[in-house]
What does this fold into?
Amino acid sequence: MATRKAFLLVLILAACSRSEAKSPANSPEPPLKMELKDRLDEAAELLAEFRGRVASPVVKRARCVAVVPAILKGGFIVGARHGSGFATCRVASGWSAPAPITISGASAGLQIGVQSVDLLMLVMTEAGMKRLLRSKFTLGADMSVSAGPVGKGREVDTDVALKTEALSYSRSRGLFAGVELNGASVQQDVDAMDALYGQRVEFQRVLMGELPVPPEAQRFISAVGETF
It folds into this structure.
C-alpha cells in the first residue's frame, strides 16, 4: 500500500510540474487558469483525433463525455495513474459547460517506467450520468465500465457495450483502443472549477447546463459537438 501511494504521489507531482512549466511567469492570468486553457485545447485536439474511430451507435447514444489528456502511468510491479480533464453532458442547447475532473488509481501488474496515455470516457446511461454528478465515485464499483468498441461494423461488440454505464478508450503512441478502467477513482477538481469559473459553483449545475460555457472552453465544447 505504501509503495502504491508513493508512485501515485510521484505522478501527481510530475503532472503539476508539467503544468507549471507551461504557464508564463508574466501572464496576467492566474497560472492555474492558463494551465486549464492549455488542457482544454489539448482535450479538443484529442477529440478531433478520436473522431471517426468510435462506433456510430456509441457516438449517438453517449450522454456525457469525459476527456483526460496525458494521464501519467508508471511504476514498478504496482502501476499508478493520475490525470486531470473535463466532463460535459448533453443538454437541451447541445453540450453543457465543462466540469473539471481528476482520475486516479492503481493497477497490479509488471510495469516499469512512466508512460503518458490519453483517455476518453463516454457515459452511456441515465444512471451513469447521475453517478457522474457525484463528488466522487469508483469505476467498476459505483459505475460499470468496459473497453469501448473501436471502428465501424462492430455490431456484436456495440450491442454489448451499449448495456454498460460507461465506455472507455485510450490513445498511446498513436494507437487507439478500448481500455479497462476498473478500480479508478473519478472526482471533482474543486480548485480547477474555482479557477475556470472565477467563483465556487456546483458541479451538478455545470453539467446540467445551468452555466454558460467560459471563453476558454469554447473550442473544447465545439469539438465535443462535432465529434458527438
Notes: Residues 2-227 form one domain. The longest helix spans residues 2-21. The radius of gyration is 17 Å.
